[in-house]
Amino acid sequence: MAPTRSFFFILLFLSAKTIQSTPTSFPGASAYRSSSKQIKNPKENIPYKTRFFPQLLDHFTFQPKSSTIFYQKYLINDQYWRHGSPIFVYTGNEGNIEWFASNTGFMLDIAPKFNALLVFIEHRFYGESLPFGKESYKSADTLGYLSSQQALADYAVLIRSLKQNLSSEASPVVVFGGSYGGMLAAWFRLKYPHIAIGALASSAPILQFDDITPWSSFYDAVSQDFKDASLNCYKVIKESWAELEAVAAQKEGLAELSRTFRTCKDLHSVYSARDWLWSAFVYTAMVNYPTEANFMMPLPAYPVQEMCKIIDGYPPGATTLSKVFGAANLYYNYSRTEKCFNIEHGTDAHGLHGWDWQVCSEMVMPMTCSNESMFPPSAYDYKGFEDQCMKSYGVKPRPHWITTEYGGNRIEQVLKRSGGNIIFSNGMQDPWSRGSVLKNISSSIIALVTEKGAHHVDFRSATKDDPDWLVEQRRREVEIIQGWIEQYNTDLKQA
User: Fold this and answer.
1) Which of 113-122, 257-266, 343-352 bottoms out in mean pLDDT, i.e. has the lowest?
2) CA-based angle 149:185:400, to the nearest 5?
3) SS3 for 301?
4) What is the dihedral of CA 302, 308, 313, 315, to 10 degrees?
5) Where does 40-123 have alpha helices with state H?
6) Which residue in 241, 230, 231 sits closest to 324, CA to CA?
């Protein structure tokens, strides 16, 4: 997840200054627009079979239309599975399911140890799981069936059917998810404890709602990542927004910005350049992984530090905008294949369109920028946000629905008595960590927190270059999951 623009993201900018101000989202569409052709098709190299499940349109009403069937994609790997062994299910997030499967090597790494069946289920309204085909995003009449509740019910129905078809109804199920998928995994365990014996929720900001988490925490955390790398780097970025506005206000200012940012076509709005920079800094902080990676974009190890080296390495007299462009170029063009950037005319490489609707309906996560942030200070303008949603979809957001449906307030007291078998894993380099569970709630609701970890870094495939803290984090996760399964099998024998 990441602050968004059009997107998950969809960056519904919620600020006092203008509705185009402060993004709210997870890794989103805008991040890929300028360099989508760099992203390899994950379908080519993931070891999963593709299947489709006949899914109900609406699980919660009995109107005639609710029984309409759509085909939901899921991926399966039975290479290591033995009948009766565990089933590990990834609760798909906002995008093509292949994208998440190709970036969740951890499940494949541990499957042999558990003889586990691996299943990745695509979220309704994303990828190829479109209930109304090309008309799925047409209006609120179709998008009204896109919600986290419907998605969780999809997963429950599919898992039960799969176990029946495999004649393995006693197989224990553990759900996994990262980012929004991590939120779904945690909520699935709470809502469907009879189906999943446990959940590993990585980088899952289930407390990013209402006023549970300070609204400025996300952007304060991004800023701290850059400040820790280089105080000068942080200051240059902080100063760049004013210079961007100043240049844009000049005669032929947008033309000058088009040249500075090497755009393929002339810019029509300064906000396009601002959002392009903003996304680069935010997503780089999120994926500040200790090894090379290609989740959001191809990036080197510790890309925040590499960005700051670029900024700090400019000679005296270099403009602030040239410095921040050089840093953003690392994010958008690390592979050095881009001759120009489609800042205003990009594509959605991962099928994230539906997140805009989710932001405007239930996923209302207030965000602001404090004076300590390296981004321009902004307040939370709910009225402006609501107006934009009404304009786009004709619906009003329900800002308190998530905490009504799943909880969040006084979570320690509530889950201590009513929940169990959930791991919340977080790295403090990830700005989403501030909205997650960072302390143990009970002996079976565990928070695994690392200082240097980034956005669901624990879900990435193990490599020989992984630092010791990451190796230990994964070891603990495996140990805890092993304990859940052993306890389940013991209980099953005694039943």
Assistant:
1) 343-352
2) 45
3) coil
4) 160
5) 97-102, 105-114
6) 241
Is 0.90 surpassed by the pTM of this model? yes
Instruction: Report the candidate in 385, 378, 375 with the shortest Cα–Cα distance to residue 15.
Output: 378
* Amino acid, single-letter form, for residue 270: V
Q: In this structure, what token pair is assigned to residue 115?
A: 């003889």
Whether the CB-CB separation of 53 and 159 falls below 8 Å is answered with no
Rounded Cα distance between 443 and 483, Å, is 12
Other Cβ atoms within 10 Å of 20 Cβ, number:
18
- Choose, from 30, 34, 171, 179, the residue flagged as catalytic: 179
Q: What gap in Å lies between CA 12 and CA 388, rounded to an integer?
A: 8
- Active-site annotation holds for 430: yes
Contact in structure between 473 and 458 (CB atoms under 8 Å): yes
Q: Is 179 a catalytic residue?
A: yes
Catalytic annotation, pick one of 225, 381, 430, 458: 430
Selecting among 147, 455, 458, 466, the annotated active-site residue is 455
Summarize pLDDT for 448-478 with one digit per residue, the tens. 999 999 999 999 999 999 999 999 999 999 9
The answer to whether 132 and 144 are in contact (CB under 8 A) is no
Query: Quick one: how far is CA 21 from the chain centroid?
Result: 20
CB atoms within 10 A of CB 40: 11
Q: How far apart are CA 233 and CA 231, in angstroms?
A: 5
Tokens of 270: 């300064």
Name the residue among 129, 126, 147 with its Cα closest to residue 70: 129
Query: Residue 495: which pLDDT band, with cuts at 50, 70 and 90?
Result: confident
Q: Rounded to whole angstroms, how far apart are CA atoms 355 and 146?
A: 9
Calpha distance 179→202 (Å, rounded): 6
User: What does the radius of gyration of the chain's CA atoms come to, in whole angstroms?
Assistant: 22
